[in-house]
């Protein structure tokens, strides 16, 4: 019986990760509601992807308009804004479109706005 308490750090970390991965969105929302921070009757958008964040698209537009900001700097700003919700793969098509435009700000902004509009329409 004493063996169940003899777990090395790696095993404990793996167990914690498995427990976190088993957590559902509904459980997390329920916990927030129980704290009183998030009221039960307030709408909670758990299905809206981070790529639909208007602030993130503003960062992308600012990057597109700036000749001084590099792609890595834009990615860093997106990471800073979205924190743990940032996924590089979500932004690759957009950042690639900016690169393909090769300093043609008008073309790049047009493509960014098209992509943003398409994302915003996703339910």
UniProtKB/TrEMBL annotation:
Domain of life: Eukaryota
The protein's name in its UniProt record: Uncharacterized protein
Species name: Mycena rosella (Pink bonnet)
